[in-house]
Amino acid sequence: MSASGPEQQSMETTAQGHGEPVLQDRPQGLLHRVFDSDIWHSFSRSPITVLSAIVTLMFFLAAIFAPLIAPYTPFQAGSLHLMDGFTPPFEEGMSGNFYVFGTDDQGRDVFSAIIYGARISLLVGFCAVLFAMVLGVTLGLIAGYRGGWIDTVIMRIADVQLSFPAILVALLIFGLAKAMIPRDYQDHMAIYVLIISIGLSDWVQYARTVRGTTMVEKNREYVQAARVIGVRPFTILFRHVLPNVMGSVLVIATIGLALAIIAEATLSFLGVGVPPTTPSLGTLIRIGNDFLFSGEWWITIFPGIALVMLALSVNLLGDWLRDALNPKLR
């Protein structure tokens, strides 16, 4: 008689390995795999990286929930108290309101203005990086895969753009785009123009990195096998080649976010960024700079510290991610 049921399963588990039971691997959960990964181990062992992540997360949460966190609404004319103008930090104004970081010349709470300004800075920086990444990755994939005159044209344009400072390119693009927009719509389109300007000035590094990796990956066996079975080039690029270049792209994007935030602050400080009705951190620094030498130092110092903390924390995260994704350093 043949064994059946539990007896048969017991015999099958002990049949292999000369009677030794075979232990079947249980599927691990997502969180378990994350906490067991080398990246999490590297992250948890770096106190500076953990601190940078906490600071970055605090800025993102403050920007998202600004109406709930900010004690005042600084950019609504009805909520301003002009008699509270130039109130020093940690003091009460004439209206009885307490201001942690003081107020500016119009009685706006500097702490609330920083929270709302960080929202604009992060929005512009994130969208600019996303636009530059999509444009640069697409052009880099096409240039590396097709080669020939397409590669030559794209790379020569990139070389010409690299010969100019990125902030100068952003200024030029911003000026040209703003000149083509009617005056009545310039304030409404200022943020979109700023995003496009910064994105067009930062796409080159993505394109050059992706092009070099694509030129290596297109000669691999899996790409040649996909060509043989008739897979279209578009599918090969975005299904097979793109996942192998995303590691480098994420590192560049993380560092590029800090650079985009600084670029937005620089343009706003120069007076060509977002309108004063929706100021960013750069605009707050520019406004406070007019009163710096008259003794109201807090109007520009606190937004400057916030900008430095945000850019530095994001930059440190990018440096850690570059080392964590580098197989030679593991």
From TrEMBL:
It is found in: Cell membrane. SUPFAM superfamilies: MetI-like (SSF161098). Residues 118-318 form the ABC transmembrane type-1 domain. Residues 1-22 are annotated as: Disordered. Keywords: Cell membrane, Membrane, Transmembrane, Transmembrane helix, Transport. The chain crosses the membrane at residues 48-70, 120-145, 157-177, 241-263, 297-321. It comes from the Bacteria. Residues 1-16 have a biased composition (Polar residues). PROSITE patterns: ABC_TM1. CDD domains: TM_PBP2. Its main location: membrane. Gene3D superfamilies: MetI-like. It is a multi-pass membrane protein. Belongs to the binding-protein-dependent transport system permease family. This is ABC transporter permease.
